[in-house]
Amino acid sequence: MRIAMLAPISWRVPPRHYGPWERVVSLLTEGLVARGVDVTLFATADSQTAARLAAVCPRPHSEDPEIHPKVWECLHISEVFERAADFDLIHNQFDFLPLTYSGLVQTPVVTTIHGFSSEKIVPVFEKYNDRGYYVSISDADRHPKLDYVATVYHGIPMDEFTLRPEPDDYLLFFGRIHHEKGVVEAIEVAKRTNRRLIIAGIIQDEDYYERQVKPHIDGQRIEYIGSVGPDRRDDVLGRAYALLHLINFDEPFGLSMVEAMATGTPVIGFGRGSVPEVVRNGVSGFIVGSVDEAVAAVGRVPELGRERARQYVEQHFSRERMVEGYIRVYQRVLEDYQARPRGS
C-alpha cells in the first residue's frame, strides 16, 4: 500500500510548538511507517519524518512572512496530484482545497475533515461528496449534508506523557488565546476557586487578549507562559490540578484534552461538540454546563483518580488505535474504489 500523506504547510511536521493538524499528521505518518506502510509525506522541507519526505515549500508560512501562503499552497498541492499515479491512495489532511484537484486523477482521495471553519466551505465538500471519502474526527463534527466512511479519533503516543499522581495546585488553560476557547471563563473559575491559573497557547486574537485577558495577568495568580512545545508539554500538562476547557464553540476534537488526561490531569469542560465523546464524565473529568458548575467541579477533582484518566486514554485514544483505524479506512476505500465503474 503506497500512501501519499498531504499535510498543511502552516507549520512544520511535527510542529515546533503550535500546529494541531500538523501534529496529527506526524503522529499518524510515523505510526503507519512503524507498521510497515509505504508513506510519502508531502510537507515543508524542514519537516522531520521516517517516511519519504516530498517538499516544494521550504518553510512554514506561519513562521516565515516571505512565504506567500496561497502561492506555496498551490505549488504544494499540485505536486501531490501531479504524482498521483505513484500512489494507491492520497490522504488529504489539508482541508477543502485539494478536493478541487481530485476529479482530475484516478487515485482515490481520503480526506480527514478537521472541523469546519465556516459554513461557506461546505459547498466544496458537497461537490465531491460522491467521489471522495470523508473521515470525521468525532461523531459530533459530522456535517448533515456529507457522507463519511468512518470516524477516527486522534491518538497520541502514550510514552510521551508521564502519569503524575501528585499534581501542583494550579489550573491550566491550554490552547489558542481566542474567545472560542474560553480563556476569560477559565480566569473567572480560577479567581472564584482561589487557585492559580497558567495560560499556555498562541495569541490568535490580539484584541481579545489585550482587552479581556491581559488585564488579569499578574505573573502570580494568573500567568501567561506563551506557546508550549513538545519539550515542555508533558510537564505543564502533568503538573496541573485540572485542565479547563470551557469552550464557546462546538469543538471538533480537542487534542489537548487527551494529552492532559494521558498525564492523569482531569478535564473540566463545557459539553459542546466533541467534549462528551472525549471526556468520560466522572472518570477522566467533569462535563459541565456553566461557569458555576465548573467552579463546583474544581472542588470535586479529588473524587477522580488520575490513574483512571490515563487508563481511559490508553483504551480509547492511543496512537495505535488511530493508526489501526486509518489502515481499515484505507483498505475499505481501496476495495470500494476498485469496485466502482471507471469514470465514476
The best one-word shape is: globular
Q: What order do the SSEs take from the amino end to the carboxyl end, as H and E?
A: EHEEHEHEHEEEHEHEHEHEHEHHH
Q: How many domains comprise the coordinates?
A: 2
CATH homolog superfamily of the largest domain? Glycogen Phosphorylase B
CATH architecture of the largest domain: 3-Layer(aba) Sandwich
**What Rg, in angstroms, do the CA atoms define?**
20 Å
Q: What class would the helix/strand composition place it in?
A: alpha/beta
How confident is the prediction overall: mean pLDDT?
96
Regions with pLDDT < 50 over 5+ consecutive residues?
none
Distance between the termini: 22 Å
Which CATH C-level class of the largest domain is it? Alpha Beta
Q: Major sheet: size, sense and barrel closure?
A: 7 strands, parallel
- Hey, roughly how much beta strand do the residues contain? 5-15%
Strands in their spatial order, largest beta sheet:
3-2-1-4-5-6-7
Measured as a percent range, the helix fraction is: 25-40%
- The number of helical elements comes to 12
Quote the CATH topology of the largest domain.
Rossmann fold
